[in-house]
Predict the 3D structure of the following.
Amino acid sequence: MKINRLKIIVLTALLFLPFLQSCEDFLDKAPSSDLAEEAVFTDYRLFKEYVDGLYPFLWYTGEDFGWATYAYGGFCRLQLSCLEDATDLSDGARSDCGVRTGFNMGDWNQSSALRAELVFPWTGGYSAIRKTNRILDHVDVIEGLTDEERAHIKGQALFFRGFFHHEMLKRYGEIPYVDRTYNVSDDMDLGRDTYVDCVEKMCRDFEEAAALLPPEFPESELGRPEKGAALGFKARTLLYAASPLNNESNDITLWQKAAEAAYAVIALNRYTLVPKNDYGRIFYGQPTNSEVLFLRNGGSGLWKEGFSLPGWGNFQLGVGARPWSDEYGSTPCPTQNLLDMYEMDNGEKPILGYTDNDGTKPIINPASGYSEAKMYERRDPRFYTTFLINGEPWLEATAGIELFFHEDATPGKHIKDDNTWTQTGYLEKKFWDPILGPSSGSTYMNWIYLRYTDILLIYAEAMNEAFGPDVDGLGKGLTARQAVNRVRSRVRMVDVKAGTKEELRERIQNERAIEFVYEDQRWFDVIRWKKGVEIFNRPVYGIRTIKLADGTFRLERRKVRDRVFKDYMHRYPIPRVELNKSKNLKNNPQWDDITVEE
């Protein structure tokens, strides 16, 4: 009789085996790999190392699938691709790009690179949760810990139990919420808890964690969750719970709870938005900054090997801004869809839609001052930190990067007319520290899971849905519009132009797209808004820059490729290997009728 993987994890813990299943060996190598749990739970030094063994799960889920299996966020985590390549904001310029081979074509095959997104978050998440419960089982009886150490360890375990359940809940919907260690005699063929129960248990874990964690860890402990991180993930959890996918009746009280949770972070007065001149450096060049609530500590490393902290993991840098590389091609590549979302400097939308399905005939907003011939001028300042466009000096291309084709179709130096190079005509530079050359240099590159900007936009979205743009319904002295404008004013953008709740909703959704582009948020935002068919089931567009004989350039809009998204894809399928081993675990609607390989 087969037993599902969840049972195996629990049984393994109960029997005190020296290490987990073989697929988890790498994770337990950092740092308490081959120690029997009996020893770990009787020595406070080893126990603290065991606690640190939670952190590798932020990089690897435990599956042996090569280097491209970064678990939760990060470039190149889906076989030389990122999840943003499955959205309207990006295209992976590689013929075997992980996302493009599956998500983009609606072929969610679990045997492909998509296992890193469809399967590993489930299996790896429960492996990590097993560890959190074992920590909580023993932390009160370990001798040698100070009261402060004990509290901080409890806080970390509770935070991560909430965090990993959150990562699964936003993908699969209802899941078994495992908040205790099971006995051998217990029925471990677990069904799925209701979504409401999952949210309540998750919020409880984050609340208890917040009460135990310090407001700030010392610099030597960079990467550990603090009080604000726990409260911030509670706010994000409640935002997802209030969103249309999970709140079909539009219960306004759920939006109010999300707004209150976000304001609890604001009220800490612990975080601030970095100034405009340092906007790019939020993501590189320094270990952390005043905007970060929770990050994955990648440390400082070389340009190519990634950025690693011994025993914790590795963050592979994206290659979008390295256009002269024949080794990997370029990903992610910004789309024209994304460019058209950036407002003009007067706050007006430049493009109101398209009269064709290929994106070649835009409907121009006459109030914006936009023109096709000068489409890169007078845009939201965040545009210039995201896009790498033709003619821009970049790294060793001091005379300007050549992303053009001559009239005879001969390519410039930094582009080719094939799938291993950008097909959108643009390259991404948001995360690329300019001190990095094409073959040398080092910098900090820490993946940020949650930053203060998100807290402000969570508050703005929730307040707008609960009370409208300009009503201070919580009495906190901050309306939805004011919260959005805090984010915009940081980059010196004019106040948001929206009169009604519906108009501000659309602007907030747009604001999230451009503010968090390539931060692993767009896919899950569109999913929770239940707008996947509307936004993802349509083509992505690009530009072709033609250099004319007189040295000037002509810009030609073009469709890059069609995309496929069906309504049932708003929830991931439960991994087939798990369903085959359980009578109580049921799949999400319609997925049982879809053939997915192992």
